[in-house]
Specification:
Elements: E1 7-11, H1 18-32, E2 37-41, H2 46-53, E3 58-60, H3 70-82, E4 87-90, H4 96-103, E5 110-114, H5 126-133, E6 135-140, H6 143-152, E7 160-162, H7 179-185, E8 193-198, H8 207-212, H9 214-220, E9 224-229, H10 239-250, E10 256-259, H11 265-271, E11 274-277, H12 286-293, E12 298-301, H13 306-309, E13 317-319, H14 324-336, H15 338-355, H16 358-370
Helix pairs in contact: 1-2, 3-4, 7-11, 9-14, 12-15
């Protein structure tokens, strides 16, 4: 779908994770639909560097502090006016106030917040109420996120819409990969079952709970390798070392393999027999959608937006957060029951094809923008 209005996507983050990659994907997807799209990002940031390599329409701007940055505000107004922008889509909540102030000087400008991180903090105060009053639309990824927006802010119900985030079903297609080759690509043994966790290394992601389940699983399944893939957040250190120490403490070093962050996620998914997401609370869990698209049997916590994506016992197994025994039991169950393993993977792929095609999700988003 093509939208005639000119859109700017704003993301001043210096990190590179799901949120930043989402901004890049949206910019690329909209530009392919002949929608006039501009990306505004911080100079020398990973997102700016990738946008330049992809030849996306990019303007860089560098906010110096969170509030009261007059020079950045003036520069933003000039950019939006000179490029005749009609809609600004904000990827981070901390950038909304800057665009809200700019919108006071551009009467026709419509602001949209594309919410990817959930917040249950009280924001019904005067300042947040004014900032959010400048928004024409608030996009949430799940109904659970929308409910929290309505509970913790004064956003009108009719201005908060739910649009799911999908994935590239051509890229995430199990028929394009061979398990043995995928395992060889990552240096994984082909003769073992591979049970893996993919994602940023963070205590809230629950990788330690996953590792604590290993000894119990090994009692019944000695021919299993447990994979932990991902890196720590930029500037944060200590959790990866903690996980390595935990492996030594539990005596499971030879059963666990750590891999760094990789962009070859479909290939890595193809190498797995079971995908586990032990997060304490997951706002959305795009990695789960990607695992579904690859037809992997999934174990995930019954937290955040995950129950809206996974149907328990059909497209995956939902377990309580922070429960080592439940993780172990679920892994054992899937490894033991071949029929269940096949059924979960097949149903997950079918659900992804039906509801999480990235192109369809982008079209739904553009329909919402076109109505502004």
């Amino acid at each position: 779908m093509e939208v005639k209005k000119k859109i700017a996507i704003v993301c001043f983050s210096h990190s590179l994770g799901g949120l930043e990659l989402s901004a890049l994907r949206l910019t690329e997807a909209m530009s392919k639909r002949e929608t006039s799209i501009l990306l505004i990002a911080s100079p020398f940031s990973p997102i700016a560097e990738r946008a330049q390599k992809a030849n996306l329409d990019l303007v860089t701007l560098s906010p110096r502090w969170k509030y009261g940055d007059v020079s950045t505000f003036i520069a933003l107004v000039r950019i939006l006016k000179s490029r005749h922008i009609d809609i600004v889509m904000l990827m981070q909540s901390k950038d909304i106030h800057l665009a809200a102030a700019a919108s006071m000087f551009i009467p026709h400008l419509k602001l949209v917040y594309y919410q990817q991180m959930n917040s249950r903090h009280y924001k019904r105060d005067i300042i947040h109420t004014w900032i959010y009053s400048r928004l024409a639309l608030w996009i949430s990824l799940t109904q659970s996120m929308k409910n929290d927006v309505l509970a913790f802010t004064r956003m009108p119900r009719d201005k908060v819409k739910v649009v799911a985030l999908g994935t590239d079903l051509h890229q995430f297609n199990p028929s394009h990969f061979k398990k043995i080759e995928a395992q060889k690509y990552f240096g994984l043994p082909s003769g073992k079952k591979i049970v893996g966790v993919l994602g940023r290394l963070d205590k809230l992601k629950g990788q330690d709970i996953f590792l604590r389940a290993v000894p119990e699983v090994m009692k019944r399944h000695p021919n299993v390798l447990f994979l932990v893939a991902g890196d720590e957040t930029a500037g944060e250190h200590g959790y990866k070392e903690y996980l390595a120490d935990l492996c030594r403490l539990l005596g499971i070093e030879r059963f666990v393999k750590f891999l760094p962050f990789t962009e070859d996620v479909p290939q890595l998914m193809a190498a797995l027999d079971v995908f586990v997401l032990p997060s304490f609370s997951e706002t959305y869990g795009l990695i789960v959608v990607e695992a579904m698209a690859m037809g992997r049997p999934i174990i995930a916590t019954n937290a955040g937006g995950l129950p809206e994506i996974i149907t328990n016992e059909k497209t995956g197994l939902l377990i309580r957060p922070k429960d080592v025994n439940e993780v172990a039991r679920a892994i054992h169950r899937i490894l033991t029951d071949n029929a269940l393993r096949t059924s979960l993977g097949h149903s997950a792929r079918k659900e992804a094809l039906k509801n999480y095609d990235y192109d369809q999700c982008v079209d739904s988003l553009l329909v919402s923008l076109a109505g502004l």
